[in-house]
Specification:
Bound molecules: flavin-adenine dinucleotide
Number of strands: 21
Strand content: 15-25%
Radius of gyration: 22 Å
Shape: globular
Distance between the termini: 68 Å
CATH superfamily of the largest domain: FAD/NAD(P)-binding domain
Strand order of the largest sheet: 6-5-15-16-17-14-18
Structural class: alpha+beta
Number of helices: 13
Oligomer: single chain
CATH architecture of the largest domain: 3-Layer(bba) Sandwich
Length: 470
C-alpha cells in the first residue's frame, strides 16, 4: 500500500523532516505558505533570517547524516561561509571571563547567512525523489483524537482542500497552531512552559575588512547573576566577505533599531571588542530587529492521549532564546529521531508517532535546560521562581564555567554539552566534578585572546579604543 507523508513548513525543521521521510515513504509533500525564493534570499516567513545563525556541531553532524550526498560543509565553504572550531577559532567572553583558545581544533561550528543555509537545504531536499513542494497554508488537521488522517489547506485565494496522509509532521515554527489543531480533535491540556527574559535582537551587516577573512568568531556574553539586564554581541563571518553583527539585550537592556545607537550599544557591553571592530567597518545594511525570542516548550511527548499519524518538530515543539544558537540543531536532531524511529516500522505502526515525539524530546530537553536555566536569572524575567535545585545547579555550573576558562578538559566537556553533542549529565561525571572542585589549571585571562595579526586588524579598525587596551 502506498504511504504518504505531509510536512507543514519548508524551513530547517520541515526540510530535514522531509529528508528523513523521503527514503521511508512513497510520497512526501512539503506545505509552505510563503513563496520560496529561487536562491539565497530573504522571505517573509523567516524574519529571523536577518540575524546571526550559527549551526552547532550536533546540527551539522545530524544534517550530514540525514543528507549524506549533500556535502553541506563543502557547499557552504565553497559559497564563502566558514567552519570555525569552538575550542580554537572563537574569542568568547563567558559569564566568568574570557575562554582560552586551545591548540586543538574541535567542536566545529558552521557560519553563513541563514538565507544561504536554507537555500542549500531547499535545493538538496526538494530535488529528492518522491518529494514535492506545495504552496499552501495548513489550517487544520483531519481525523480524530485517535488518528490524524491528513491536513486541510487553503491556497493563496483562500480555496480550501483536504489532503490525506498516513503521517503529518508539523514544522510550522514558533507560530505553529498544533495546540489549537489538536484541541479541535479533542486533545487538550498540552503543558506549556515559558521562560521569557524579553530578549530583543538587533543585527547589521558590515563589509569585512581586507585581511580579516580568518578573523575569529567573536562572542561577548552577559553574566546572568550580574543583577543587570543581559546584553550580548556576536560578530559572525558570513559569505560575501561580510560580518553579521547581532546584538541582544534582555528586558530593560534592549537594543533599538536606531543605526546611531548600534555602535554605542556594542561598545557598552561587558567588553567593547565587537564595538571596536565594527567602529571602522563599513555598514552594508540597516538594523533589523526581532522580538520573537522567548523560551517556550510544549510538552507534546507527555500528552495523556496522542493521535497516531501526527508529529511536531522544530520550533513548533520548543523555541529557545537565540543567543544559545540551538534551534536549528534541535530541529536537525528531531529529524534524526524521526528517521530512527520510523526506520524499521510502517507509518501505520501503533504508537509510532508517540515514540517519535518522545525520541525528539531528548534533544529538546537538553537545549531547554541549558537556555531556561540561564535565562531565569535575568531581571524582569517572566517564569516560575527558581527552585532549590536550580540554585544548586547554577552554583555548580558557574564554578565549572570559571574553571573551564583555565582547563582544557573542563572546557571541552562544556563544549560537548553546549553544542548539544552530549546531554547535561556529562557535566556531573565524578571525574569532572573533581576537576571542577579542583579549580582552574591556568590563571584567568586579562583580555581577549587575540594573536598579533588579529590585534593588528583590531587596531586598524578601531576608531574608539585606547591604544593601550588589549
Ligand atoms: C533572532 C534569532 C536568531 C537565531 N539564531 C540562531 C542560531 O544562531 N542558531 C540556531 O540554531 N538557531 C537560531 N535561531 C533559531 C532558528 O531560527 C529556528 O530554530 C529555526 O528556524 C527553526 O526552524 P523551524 O523550521 O522549526 O521553524 P521556522 O524556521 O520558523 O519555519 C517555519 C516554516 O513554516 C512555515 N509555516 C508556518 N505555518 C505554516 C502553515 N500553517 N502552513 C504552511 N507553512 C507554514 C513558515 O512560513 C516557515 O517557512 C534564531 C532565531 C532567532 C529569532
Amino acid at each position: 500500500m502506498s504511504r504518504r507523508a505531509i510536512v507543514v513548513g519548508a524551513s530547517v525543521a520541515g526540510l530535514l523532516a522531509a529528508a528523513a521521510l523521503s527514503d521511508l515513504v512513497d510520497e512526501v509533500t512539503v506545505l509552505e505558505r510563503d513563496v520560496l525564493p529561487d536562491g539565497p534570499a530573504p522571505r517573509k516567513g523567516l524574519p529571523q533570517g536577518r540575524h546571526a545563525h550559527i549551526l552547532l556541531t550536533s546540527g551539522l553532524n545530524a544534517i550530514e547524516a540525514l543528507l549524506p550526498g549533500l556535502g553541506l560543509r563543502q557547499r557552504v565553504l565553497a559559497a564563502g561561509g566558514r567552519e570555525i572550531s569552538l575550542t580554537s577559532g572563537a574569542v568568547m567572553l563567558g559569564p566568568q571571563g574570557w575562554f582560552r583558545r586551545w591548540r586543538h581544533h574541535s567542536h566545529p561550528l558552521l557560519t553563513c547567512s541563514r538565507d544561504l543555509l536554507d537555500a542549500t537545504l531547499r535545493e538538496a531536499v526538494l530535488g529528492r525523489p518522491r518529494t514535492g513542494l506545495r504552496h499552501a497554508r495548513a489550517i487544520a488537521l483531519l481525523g480524530s483524537a485517535d488518528r490524524v488522517t491528513g491536513v486541510r489547506i487553503a491556497d493563496a485565494q483562500g480555496a480550501e482542500e483536504d489532503l490525506r496522509a498516513d503521517l503529518v509532521v508539523d514544522a510550522g515554527g514558533r507560530g505553529s497552531r498544533a495546540v489549537q489543531w489538536l484541541a479541535a480533535l479533542g486533545i487538550t491540556g498540552i503543558r506549556e512552559a515559558v521562560v521569557d527574559s524579553g530578549v530583543v535582537y538587533a543585527s547589521r551587516v558590515y563589509r569585512m575588512p581586507e585581511g580579516a577573512e580568518g578573523f575569529p568568531l567573536v562572542l561577548v556574553q552577559p553574566d546572568p547573576m550580574d543583577a543587570m539586564p543581559g546584553r550580548a554581541a556576536a560578530l559572525v563571518p558570513i559569505e560575501g566577505g561580510r560580518w553579521l553583527a547581532s546584538l541582544s539585550g534582555t528586558r530593560g537592556g534592549e537594543p533599538t533599531g536606531d543605526p546611531a545607537a548600534f555602535l554605542r550599544f556594542a561598545l557598552g557591553l561587558r567588553h567593547p571588542l565587537v564595538g571596536r571592530l565594527i567602529s571602522g567597518a563599513e555598514p552594508l545594511s540597516d538594523v533589523a530587529l526581532s522580538r520573537s525570542t522567548r523560551n517556550v516548550r510544549r510538552y507534546f511527548e507527555s500528552a495523556v492521549t496522542w493521535p497516531e499519524g501526527f508529529v511536531v518538530l522544530g520550533d513548533a515543539t520548543a523555541a529557545f532564546n537565540p543567543v544559545y544558537g540551538q534551534g536549528m540543531s534541535v530541529a536537525a536532531l528531531g529529524a534524526q529521531a524521526l528517521r530512527r524511529e520510523l526506520g524499521g516500522s510502517d507509518t501505520a505502526a501503533p504508537g509510532l508517532a508517540r515514540r517519535v515525539q518522545r525520541a525528539a524530546a531528548e534533544a529538546v530537553e537538553a537545549a531547554w535546560s541549558l537556555s531556561s536555566s540561564q535565562d531565569r536569572w535575568f531581571p524582569g524575567v517572566l517564569a516560575d521562581r527558581p527552585t532549590l535545585a536550580d540554585h544548586v545547579l547554577t552554583r555548580y555550573v558557574r564554578r565549572m564555567t570559571r574553571v573551564a576558562a583555565g582547563s582544557y578538559r573542563v572546557s571541552t566537556a562544556m563544549c560537548d554539552v553546549t553544542t548539544l553533542q552530549k546531554d547535561g549529565s556529562r557535566l556531573l561525571r565524578p571525574s569532572l566534578l573533581l576537576a571542577t572542585l579542583g579549580g582552574p589549571v591556568l590563571p584567568p585571562l586579562a583580555g581577549p585572546p587575540l594573536t598579533e595579526a588579529e590585534r593588528a586588524i583590531l587596531h586598524g579598525l578601531d576608531r574608539v579604543g585606547s591604544p593601550s587596551r588589549p
